[in-house]
Amino acid sequence: MDRFPVVPTEAGSIADIQRRLSLWCQRQGRGLARVEYSSEFARQRVVADLQRALAELGIPFHEIILPFERPPAEVIPLLLDKLTEAGSGVVSITGLGSAFSKDVPLIEPLQILNFNRERIAAFPARQIWWMPPALVRNIVHSMPDLNSWFSPRLYLMEVIKPAAAAFSLQSSTGVNLEDARQRAQRLWERFQAAQAEGISINELLTNYASPAIQALYEAGALREAEALLNQIQKHLPQTIDFPESLETADFLEARALLEIALGHYEQAAALLPKSLELRKKFLGEEHPNVATSLNNLAGLYYSQGRYDEAEPLFQQALGLRRKLLGEEHPDVATSLNNLANLYSSQGRYDEAEPLLQQALRLVRKLGEEHPKVATSLNNLAGLYYSQGRYEQAEPLYVQALGLRRKLLGEEHPDVATSLNNLAELYSSQGRYEEAEPLLVRALAIRERVLGVAHPYTVATRRWLERVREG
Question: Buried b vs exposed e over 17-40: b needs ≥16 C-beta within 10 Å?
């Protein structure tokens, strides 16, 4: 089972958005592109990849980061000045979602932007405007004329977990734990300031609360994310008083995934059904985000051993993803993996194996060195281990462990999972001297990252005790 159920997608993935923007940036003439995004880490990855690609083509690249919560009369002239300074090439514009003072309704700066749209579009540089979902919805509904000036209008769906250990210095994506901490702290401070100014719950959730928790969660700092969540929740109403909105659905889902990762299943069980209900209400029964909610709820039931309840939800999520995204989509691979894990836990090995093989084939399209490949290898090895096929399981476990160490760092929870799994295999073969150091290492990671009382930590500690007893 993936620890983070939301996985990279093909349409709307980092690679897809980078490719589309790269082709668009090479066209002649001016242009404005709008990219909706919810993961700052994914956005940074796209920008870094795009900047490298354009540098190889000799196309100048500029970044404009707008100031935080300033009067529109300051922000928009500043933007125009920055566009003038940039000249030709490509300009990436960020910070629009938090640029304008909360003292004025958002409609006012949008009207000023709309009034200046011809001037903005006349600049020689091609412009990429990065916008959070709440801002996009406001523009679409209140300023359709402004919205029509953006072409293309893209959606970065991928939400990534930086390839870094929770306590490592640097990740391969350029995001480190200290960056995540600083970002979360800034968002928390802005959350408090915005709440004091009477900002709506929807804006608090979208612009501050969810991104702050996500920053730590994606960096693997689960206990720090939990502490921040506890602080935020003291400043929010009870769940029953939350507005019925997609923003609430997203926040509840983010909270629930963190609770699952921390082993707090009962807390997650109170959140996920509501999130699913809201997404169905606002998105309809057939939407990729509804499939994600179904998958996450099924994953919770699976973690609780409620297999009869998990299976139909996993199947429904798989069916929706196949219908909406196509047979080759990585989200389909995640559903195949999850359903296969369920079958394997029930001893339905003949049903599980072809699903795991198919999932491995799909995720390998993301590249041989990808965390999802490690997950699929680990799951397939787990099936072989459950069947007593140790000679087939061992090389897959070893490969998965090597990939996770390389991609995620030595201190990541997924590395602990691989260490634990390989140690269980060795101990099942009576290879206790090889198993013990792996379990010691896994236990140390889990105690630091998950806490001493987490179910995974407790299971590793008990297994280590059995190994030492021989």
Answer: bbebbbebbeeeeebbbbbbbbbb
State the chain's mean pLDDT as an integer.
84
pLDDT digits (tens, 9 = 90+) for 374-427: 999 999 999 999 999 999 999 999 999 999 888 877 878 889 999 999 999 999
Structure tokens at 89: 């090439």
- Dihedral pair phi/psi, residue 260, rounded to 5°: -65, -45
**Is residue 106's pLDDT more than 50?**
yes
- Per-residue confidence (pLDDT) for residue 22, from 0 to 100: 92
What is the distance between the alpha carbons of residues 35 and 133, in angstroms, rounded to a whole number? 10
As a whole number of angstroms, the distance between CA 130 and CA 433 comes to: 53
Q: Are residues 362 and 328 in contact, defined by beta-carbon separation less than 8 angstroms?
A: yes
Neighbouring C-beta atoms of residue 348, cutoff 10 Å: 12
Each residue's pLDDT tens digit, 285-325: 988 889 999 999 999 999 888 999 999 999 999 999 999 88
Give rounded-to-5 percent helix, strand, coil for the chain: 65, 5, 25
**Helix extents (H) in 92-209:** 107-115, 117-121, 133-142, 144-147, 177-196, 201-204
Q: How far apart are CA 227 and CA 218, in angstroms?
A: 15
Q: Give the full edge-to-edge strand order of the sheet including 90-94.
A: 61-65, 90-94, 126-131, 31-37, 153-156
The pLDDT assigned to 366 comes to 80
390-415 b/e (C-beta count within 10 Å ≥ 16 → b): beebbebbebbbebbbebbbebbbbb
Output the pLDDT for position 280.
93
For 152, other C-beta atoms within 10 Å of its C-beta total 12
- Neighbour count for residue 1 (Cβ, 10 Å): 18
Could you read off the pLDDT of 185-214 as tens digits, one per residue? Answer: 888 888 888 888 887 787 788 778 888 887
In the Cβ-directed half-sphere of 131, how many Cα atoms lie within 13 Å? 22
Which DSSP string do the residues of 71-96 spell out, in sequence order?
-HHHHHHHHHHHHHHH-SSEEEEE-G
Residues 6 or more apart in contact with residue 275 via CB below 8 angstroms: 248, 249, 250, 252, 253, 256, 293
